[in-house]
Amino acid sequence: MNKFFYPKLAVNNIKKNSKTYIPYMLTCIGTIMMFYNICFLVVAKDIEIVQDSGSLRQVMLLGAMVIGIFSLIFLFYTNSFLIKKRKKEFGLFNILGMEKKHISKIIFFETLITSSITLIVGILSGILLSKLIILFLFKILSFNATFGFEISPTAIFASLCLFGSINVINFIFNITQVHLSKPVELLKGGNVGEREPKTKWLLTIAGALCLGTGYYIAVVTESPLAALNLFFVAVMLVIVGTYCLFTAGSIAVLKRLRKNKKYYYKPNHFVSVSGMIYRMKQNAAGLSNICILSTMVIVMISSTISLYTGMEDILKIQYPKDIIISAYEISDEEAKTLNEIINQQTSAAYIEQKDVIYYRSTELLAIQEGTYFKPVENQFDTMDSISTIGIITLEEFNRMENKAVELKDDECLLYSQRGNITENELNLNGYNITIKEKLTSLSSLDREAMASITNSYVIVVKSLDTVNRISASMNITERVDIRSYYYGFNIDEDSEVHVNLINNINSSIRESDTYGRADGPELSRESFYTMYGGLFFLGIFLGILFIMATVLIIYYKQIAEGYDDKERFDIMQKVGMSRSEIKKAIKSQVLTVFFLPLITTVVHIVFAFKVITKLLLIFGMTNVPLFAMCTVATIAVFALFYLMVYYLTARVYYQIVS
Description:
69% helix
């Protein structure tokens, strides 16, 4: 036998199955190219010029891990589709006298050829596009690009190891499928699952419960910290519920429609419903995957776009003043030293302080149960009930607000930044204090960033003696004069002056051996752009990957349905159905199956919207209308793209059927 017999046969098989192999190979090339580039960004020397480059590399490393895990799952899934469609061909080889070890040789050379082509082309394409990718990243981060071209051996090695391993796993799976199947089973491999599936009510109910529980968690969660804790639980429940309902629930619904004689006994409904019942079992995984991937794309892109476009709002929340000096638990002497440093540095630079806010406060972290507050013992078990309490003295309040309010020892003023106190008395772990007045505003305090994450309250009390009693009841043993320090002001200067003043104040603080730190939006702007720009870039990058996977799954589903339906519609035409009736039935069936994942995706997004806004609060994103607008725009663009994919893949389906 010619030693090139098996390689030639493998090449011929790939050519004959080009409708399935070429999209698979193109997807492999695209995935390898993206994985190389994300690994390249982790180690690229050009990244060093970016401020806070370590955080950016961590974001890219996270992206590389996500792409690696996704590539393993997705390419294994698509390979299983390919081998299923090839079983009939391998069964024919077996019946014609070819042993299974010979079929394994053919599969080996097919795997070797496809993996070699995809690895070489994918890595070379990644290298060629790497400069363009890093230029795009620098554009997002508002950094100037550097000259030069770099090739990363580390990224090449990582790509070869990952995708070489995936190809080996797929090869082992393919030959196992061939060796464990009898020739007759191989011949019928593409038609497995043609028997009418049973209605699995238990699985349907379980799916509905999982989906309902996931939706309930998403809707009722109020605290951002609780949202962080429960989000992944809700996601897993929704994923399990989606798979169960697509697998069992859809069959139950279709069988209900079949029992409805007025609906079922119409030519287009009869054909589409009966066809979907028989194939829903094998299509359920594909439809579920399309739905989950579509949801991931929309959530990821809309979230990262809103974070990136709302960056100035986030900076304003984090830094309400141009220059902010803060310290935690310092004495009155240290506070006096900080005041002197600030005044000296601004005077030396001939800078006028405007809109000055200065106060001392005692900060408490407590577990809230209505109007009862107790010390935090285990933060992780009570994420949804943690509150922050800032206590200031009446003297500080009257000075800041320019008022002359009077209080008794057991009275206080309450300002609720986030949270709701309905009663007129607070119980601070056994210490009761009456609320004399609930303030509707307190513009002289900058605590917006803290209030966006937890319930946040400010209590104004008569004197430090009251502060001391409250601290003692909450098991805080520090001296009463050890309090937090905040000093903020605005200046009418350019960005460079802002940064120089902050650096000078920080230098003086270090020299004075006093605890404290100066900060401001201009100093942190580059770091914000690095972090949020990196997340935005990663969102786009992963979004493209997931869209590519969605398109391939849709394409394979259309091909599979086309070959499955061809014989059915031929028979129906022979028994009397007109071509126009068949066309209507095909259109009804394809539209129903194709757009079901998109409709389910939109439902998932609607229920997830609230919990996602809570998660974005952790990043400082409070602009809910902006996120809503980004989400609607992303859904609209994705739906348009989905429609385009439908028309392109539907043409392939119609060609096969007709």
